[in-house]
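Posting for a labmate who doesn't have an account.
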Amino acid sequence: MIARPATPAARIVAALDTDRPAQALAWAEALSPHVGVLKCGLELFCAGGPAAVSPVVARGPVFLDLKLHDIPNTVAGAVRSVLLLGVAMLTIHAAGGAAMVAAAREAAEAAGAARPLLLAVTVLTSLSPEALAATGVPDAPAAQVVRLARLAMAAGADGLVCSPFEIAPIRDALGEAPALVVPGVRPAGADRADQARVATPEEAVAWGADWIVLGRPLTRAADPAAVARAVAAALPR
C-alpha cells in the first residue's frame, strides 16, 4: 500500500483528465518525475478501459478515480477487477453505505500488502451548500462530510476525498487516521472552473491534506512540469 508522502512533490496528484489515452500517457511521461501520483479518472477509463490505464501505471503510482457506487456485491466485484491493474489508490462513494465500503475493503484485501489505498469520496467539490441541499441533504457540506467520513472509516476505508474546507473538521473528528486526498485545489489566480469549494495548494497542505489533486492548472499549462515544480517549491515542508 502506498505510503503517505514524504516530500512536497510527492504530495501532488496530477489528474490526467482526457478521453485520449495517448494524451494521458504524454502527460504522465512529462509529469511523473515531478509529482507523486498520476490520476486516471472516469473520462479516460470510459474511453480506453484498463488498456488506457496500464501504460500510466508503468510510469508511476496511479490513483484510479472511478468513484464506485453500487450494491456491495457489484462494488466488490469491480474492486477485484481493478486489483489486476496494480493501482495505488481507488475511490468509492461513502454514500454507498457501510456495507458497500466494507465489501470493497474485503475485496481489496485479496491483493495483500500491494492492495490499493481505499478512499471514500464524501461530498463532491463541485457541490455548493445550495446544490447539496437540492439533493435532499439540508446540512452544510462540512457536517455531511464528517458524517460520511465517520461511516466510511468505521467500515474499513483507508482515507477520504474531501474539499480543502473539510480538512479541519475531519481532522478534528477523526485525527490523523484518515489519509486525505484533496481536490478543489487551484494555484492563486487560477480559474476555478466548475469547482465550488477551493483553496490554494499551500493552504490545503497547511490545513492537513496528505495529497492535493491538480488537473487543469497542470494539463492546460504550456509547460506542465514547470508548473508542478513551482507548486512543489511553494508547499510547506
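Reply:
Got it, the C-alpha cells are right above this. The two ends are 23 Å apart (CA to CA).
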